[in-house]
Amino acid sequence: MITERQLLDLLQRVLETDDLLAVEPFHRRAMYYLDEAVAQNLVSARRAAQHKEQVNKHLQSLWARKHEAVYAQFEDPAR
């Protein structure tokens, strides 16, 4: 069982992490706990969906930056 405070702390940790490898485990855990929080009536399904969208956008942003860095290496091998 997770408390609302623990859930919010976990979400904050995900959103503050800029390292893709470090954020992956937190991302998965956050998605699981958001579903659990809805089941326990800690947050509404609508609010949980908003949190999930925010977390997923952050993860997509990290992946986009990773891809840009990889593509940049191919375009400029001197990097």
Structure, described:
Helix 1 (4-16) packs antiparallel against helix 2 (20-39) and helix 2 (20-39) packs antiparallel against helix 3 (45-75). The chain has one domain (4-75). It contains three helices and no strands. With 79 residues, the protein is mostly helical. It has helices spanning 4-16, 20-39, 45-75. The protein is elongated.
Précis, in short:
This protein has 79 residues and is an all-alpha fold.
The major pleated sheet works out as: none
Strand content: under 5%
Give the end-to-end Cα distance, rounded to a whole number of Å: 47 Å
Q: What ranges have pLDDT less than 50 throughout 5 or more consecutive residues?
A: none
What's the gyration radius in Å?
A: 16 Å
Strand elements, count: 0
What number of domains?
Answer: 1
The helix tally amounts to: 3
Q: Residue-averaged pLDDT, rounded?
A: 86
* Shape type: elongated
Order of helices and strands: HHH
> Which structural category do the helix and sheet elements fall into?
mainly alpha
Helix content: over 70%
Oligomeric form: single chain
Task: List strands and helices in order, with pairings.
Blueprint: H1 4-16, H2 20-39, H3 45-75
Helix pairs in contact: 1-2, 2-3
Name the features.
elongated, 79 residues, mainly alpha
